[in-house]
Amino acid sequence: MDPHLLRTYVTVARLASFSEAARELGYTQSAVSQHIQALEQDLGAPLLTRRPVLPTAAGERLLEHAGPLLLRLDAARADVVRMAAAPEHGLVLAAAPTALGPHVLAALPAAGVTLRVLAREAVPAAVATGTADLGLVDGLAAPSDPLRLPDVAPLTTRGAGEEPVCVLLPDAHPLARRPGLRLADLADARWLDAPDAGLPLTHLRAANGGHGFRPALRYDGTDVRTLTALATAGRGLTLLPRSAATGIPGTVAVPVTEPRVVHRTELVHAGVLRGAAAALADVLTG
After folding, report:
1. Cα–Cα distance list, 250 to 116, 163, 229 (Å)
2. Looking at the structure, do residues 239 and 279 belong to the same domain, yes or no?
3. Are 245 and 281 in the same domain?
4. Of 47, 134, 234, 238, which is least packed with CB atoms within 10 Å of its CB?
5. Pair (111, 53) in one structural domain
6. What is the pLDDT of residue 209?
7. How many CA atoms, within 13 angstroms, populate the side-chain half-sphere of residue 131?
8. Which CATH number does the domain housing residue 78 bear?
9. How far apart are CA 41 and CA 34, in angstroms?
């Protein structure tokens, strides 16, 4: 299967238009049509209806495979380019917002670093495709257990730290004076669904046997301060690493005592690290 034809197909399906796809890809509309016809002929199945432009059942199945396939190809290209690249003149670190704890911030060099705060699931892809030299991902895990990361490319992961987790409560909340909380006791509470700013509710459900933790409000963003402001205003509870949850006016950070879970941060990189990337990686994981 020709990856150029596959990329054309994905673009047409996403935009639902041959002409818009041609404009985005820099092709003529007839060239886009020829790409689709060639791919359909190769696979022996129609992939798109023409009016309207929509994927067929076979086309939908192909789309399920296309994203990971194209990402792996981009990762392979980036890996080869990275090996042949000229000496680095800077360092790009991609990180989930709650992975930027005090230890990480203190370890950053005084100059020469570009920090990209991304959605948690986007960090491995940024490293795999070469848009970041290093990545920091985080999540809820049992102590010393590795995180489960998307399989986007052959990446190396190294533990970069663990710390307790806390439920952030308004200081007038009935549970705010508790010395500790069990997650199971909070399964039916009002929660903030902020998968890219706090610890995702899917992690909480997994730690609680797969149920509970229905969202009262969803926040699509990566700003931890916005998330804590929502919790302070009583819009819902959120789970954060202790360093991010403490010292926020109008709130109390109550530790989770059961189950035994921690906030775990891992460093992600591709290939062999050199120069500034290797030095920072050693500090973060040492």
Report:
1. 30, 23, 9
2. no
3. no
4. 234
5. no
6. 87
7. 13
8. 1.10.10.10
9. 10
Range of the domain at 14: 3-84
Q: 19-22 long-range CB contacts below 8 Å, 24 or more apart?
A: none
Residue 217 neighbours by CB under 8 Å, 6+ apart:
192, 193, 230, 235, 236
Same-domain check for residues 171 and 152: no
- CA atoms of 213 and 238, how far apart (whole Å): 10
Query: Percentage of the chain surpassing pLDDT 70?
Result: 97
> Are 137 and 278 within one domain?
yes
Question: Can you name the residues that pair with 161 across neighbouring β-strands?
Answer: 265
- Cα gap 153→76, rounded to integer Å: 8
* Cβ proximity of 185 and 260 under 8 Å: no
Residue (of 120, 127, 126) closest to 148 by Cα position: 120
**Helix and strand element counts for the chain (H, E):** 10, 13
**What is the model's pLDDT at position 89?**
53
Where does a domain end: 84, 118, 136?
A: 84
pLDDT at residue 87 tops 50: no
Beta carbons within 10 angstroms of residue 46's beta carbon = 15
Last residue of a domain, one of 45, 63, 84: 84
| pTM attached to this predicted model | 0.70
Q: Please check whether residues 157 and 274 belong to one and the same domain.
A: yes
Report the CATH number that the domain containing residue 206 is assigned in CATH: 3.40.190.10
pLDDT (tens digit per residue) in 198-216:
999 999 999 988 889 999 9
In angstroms, the CA 267 to CA 278 distance is 11
Please give the Cα distance from 74 to 77 (Å, whole number): 5
Tens-digit pLDDT profile for residues 243-275: 999 999 999 999 999 999 999 999 999 988 988
Question: Domain tally for the chain?
Answer: 3
Average pLDDT of the residues in 76-85: 69
